[in-house]
Specification:
two-stranded antiparallel ribbon; single chain; globular; phosphoribosylanthranilate isomerase activity; aromatic amino acid biosynthesis
Length: 210
């Protein structure tokens, strides 16, 4: 199966369109006010309205209040919720939506044990741990720390770009890869050329001759 690609941190309709044109399967919208890639509900609606069909929309939250999440769900048509903080599994389930759970690969962390409670997640997203930065740090982590036999499909994040994603795919064979800063010209501003190069590198990683 070809590796799926999510381009996260879209802040402008034209960037969402460019991500889709490059071949991304999903885009991510960040609803975490501390992030340089934060979008309001109004901005998010404009981005979603510009997308062509069959591109999934993922809304990213970091330890957000239940009411805040429900308010966004009522305003923005999201296909999946991404919980990128320390949310326990019951909190992820309460919305009755398909969800992704991010786990941060702290040095020495038991990622298999951390993943176990989220056995109903649509997928588990493994990201680098950077203190005070929930995501989009541009930092990689030790891929050897990724456990075999995760209970749900693996989405790999953390410092991916056109220079390393093919290697990551060959080593880990994730269901999907998630990129943000690795395809930007500035925080929150995506670069169409970089997105195209990233997608080409993903195809090279998938190729048996790559």
């Amino acid at each position: 199966m070809p590796t799926r690609v999510k381009i996260c941190g879209i802040t402008r309709p034209q960037d969402g369109l460019a991500a889709a044109a490059a071949g991304a399967h999903a885009i991510g919208l960040v609803f975490h006010p501390a992030s340089p890639r934060y979008v309001t509900a109004s901005q998010a609606r404009d981005i979603v309205a510009a997308l062509p069909p069959l591109v999934s929309v993922v809304g990213l939250f970091v330890d957000a209040a239940e009411g805040e999440i429900r308010d966004l769900l009522a305003q923005v048509p999201l296909d999946l919720i991404q919980f990128h903080g320390a949310e326990p599994a019951p909190d992820c389930r309460r919305f009755g939506r398909r969800y992704l759970k991010a786990l941060h690969a702290r040095p020495g962390a038991d990622l298999a044990a951390a993943a176990a409670p989220y056995d109903d997640a649509a997928g588990l997203l493994l990201d680098a741990f950077v203190s005070g930065v929930p995501g989009g740090s541009g930092q990689t982590f030790d891929w050897a720390a990724v456990p075999a036999g995760l209970p749900r499909p693996l989405l790999l994040a953390g410092g991916l770009d056109a220079g390393n994603v093919a290697m990551a795919i060959r080593r880990l064979r994730p269901w999907a890869v998630d990129v943000s800063s690795g395809v930007e010209s500035a925080p929150g501003v995506k670069d169409a050329q970089k997105m195209g190069m990233f997608m080409q590198a993903v195809r090279e990683g998938d190729s048996p001759h790559g």
